[in-house]
Amino acid sequence: MADMIEIENVNTPGKTTRVNATKYADMRAALEKAVPRDSPGLNQNEIREAAKPLLSEDLFPQGKTCGWWAKTVQLDLEAKGLLIREATKPLRWHWK
To answer: How far apart are CA 84 and CA 58, in angstroms?
Structure first.
């Protein structure tokens, strides 16, 4: 079984979930490169599309499941205070 890590979700404080550590790390590294450091940031679709070419083809063949992983990692990083959610429509995120 793959190594697992506990993650948080900004929308459900205090609750944790266990996910594949390798896929999490790959997506986090992609988000660290794809998401800007400053406002105006990227919306969810832009984050997914910017991260997709940065992912391991072995872990995410043809970008499969990258949307779910991008959102999962984004929510965890936001819960940890590392990503900032801007008060815009559509929502946008950037690094703290």
So the answer is: 30
DSSP symbol at 87? S
User: Residue 95: helix, strand or coil by DSSP?
Assistant: strand
Q: Is the confidence at residue 71, as pLDDT, over 80? A: yes
Residue 20: give the domain boundaries. Answer: 4-95
Whose tokens are 């910017």? That residue is 50
> Is 0.85 surpassed by the pTM of this model?
yes
For residues 22 and 6, what is the distance between their CA atoms, to the nearest angstrom? 12
Q: How many domains does the chain have?
A: 1
Report helix angle 21-34 to 66-79, nearest 10.
80
**Residue 86 sits in a domain of what CATH number?**
1.10.10
Q: Say if CB 77 and CB 87 are below 8 A apart.
A: no
